[in-house]
Design goal:
The complex is a heterodimer of chains A (about 80) and B (about 450). Chain A has a domain of about 40 residues. With about 80 residues, chain A is an all-alpha fold. In chain A, about 35% of the residues lie in helices and about 0% in strands. Chain A is built from two helices and no strands. The longest helix of chain A is centred in the N-terminal third of the chain and has 19 residues. Chain A is flat and about 55 Å long. The relative contact order of chain B is 0.14. In chain B, strand 10 and strand 11 form a beta hairpin. In chain B, about 40% of the residues lie in helices and about 15% in strands. Chain B is of the alpha/beta class and about 450 residues long. In chain B, helix 2 runs antiparallel to helix 3, helix 10 packs across helix 12 and helix 10 packs across helix 13. The interface between A and B is large, with 45 and 59 residues.
Chain lengths: ~80, ~450
Amino acid sequence: MEEKLKRQAERVLRELSEALGEIDLEETYYVVDEINITRDDSKPEVKRGFRKAVLGIAPKRDEEGYYIAETGGWVA
Amino acid sequence: MSMEELRTGAVSTQENVARYLEAIEERDSEVNAFIELNPRAEEEARRVDEKLRRGEAGKLAGLVIAVKSNINVRGLRATCASKTLENYVSPYDATVIERIRREDGVIIGMTNMDEFACGSSGETSYFGATQNPSARGRIPGGSSSGSAAAVAAKFADLALGSDTGGSIRNPASHCGVVGVKPTYGLVPRHGLIDLAMSLDQIGPLARDVRSAALLLEVIAGHSDREATTIRARGESYSSQLSADLSGMKIGFAREFEEYTAGEIIREVKHALSKLEAQGASVVEVELPSLEKALPTYYLTVFVEFFSATRRYDGRRYGYRIEEVCGEEVLRRIMLGRYISRKEYSGRYYRRALQFRSLIKREMLEVLRSVDLIAGPTTPKLPHRLGESLTPLEMYAYDLLTVPANLAGIPAGVIKAGEVRGIPVGLQLQAGPLEEQKILNAMYALEGGE
């Protein structure tokens, strides 16, 4: 399966990049010119029950509310 | 339910919800539009009716809304139609959901979609494909397949979808309903599980233009929680609807005919003649870079999607994505990873961003000479469910919708006609923040006054 997908992916990449061709222009990252990264600070909002809800969907956690994760197990 | 019946109180919110739940119970096993229903919908409807009696209800009071499964609704599962998040119960409401609740809309449930919005057919869902209620046996389009199908099948008054490269407009076209992709930054994305963050927008799907306009005005407007929302307020689109198109100039690009099936073009031109009858003039325009839009879009999406999926590591919620996802999602992750590794040469992503500048410039240039660009939504009719397509054949569905996302401009779709009983949508694109022009033209086509 992975081999088939890899072959398809290579073909997709080759055909799309060939179709694109060459160009010399500035890049557009976001179409919004002014990103509000300097927004005003406001009072932190703590929603009741949020922490409990988040911990409720954790695959593994201990009694004190910490996640249990195998070291390095998630690294791709 | 008509908005008039709700407004006059002929039908209560509780009755409206009950009728839709009954319809879903009877027919959704065939359509597969919903992944999960809201167990609190009837209770929420009762509270809205109380507010209506007290004269305190908001502008969505009485209306029943379905939500795409990539938008967080507290207490319901935002699965993105993937096994990866099958147990992910949203711990918070997205900003758009908070705004809907503030105006007393009732959420009826979470709709089916292409897995992580990676698809244009509605077939890649872990929960099974969605059927097109308006063309049985055909795909409903995607990725907001369940939202469009729910509206078309009369399982809800309205639905929310998300549109990264046509995911609202493509299924709206195939299912014969109204769909609007707003200007990038008009609607906050906080709480939307992203496919490609520089392109995604949340928007409405509806059976008529007025209710699409109403939902849009509720969800639009700046939010401090989201760095890419623009400092604009949502206009009162629904109260400003006008079918008088006198003086409106509409452009039709000759390139549309080159890439689109003749039977679709015929329906689109027929719809354009109706707009001319309402006072608009139609002129020919050129979009020479249209053929570059698809590779530009996909090379951007692969990288941004790969980046977005790094959070699905199975530690805090869900499963590790690569271990459980479907073929199309895995293919895009592989492509995004490969491009990211090779990107030091600027060969793919950087080049795509450069072409994005070209496409944006070209679209905005054309929109300086006309009010709207009108054309087909998809180059071909929806294929039969289960039919096998190569990845590139599937991506080709998006050719005519991706330019609006790359340029960040608004676009809407409304039914133009039918080909052998299959709906065909007219797509209307306008300059940034000119949603009202699109809504007015769609309203005129619908026969409004």
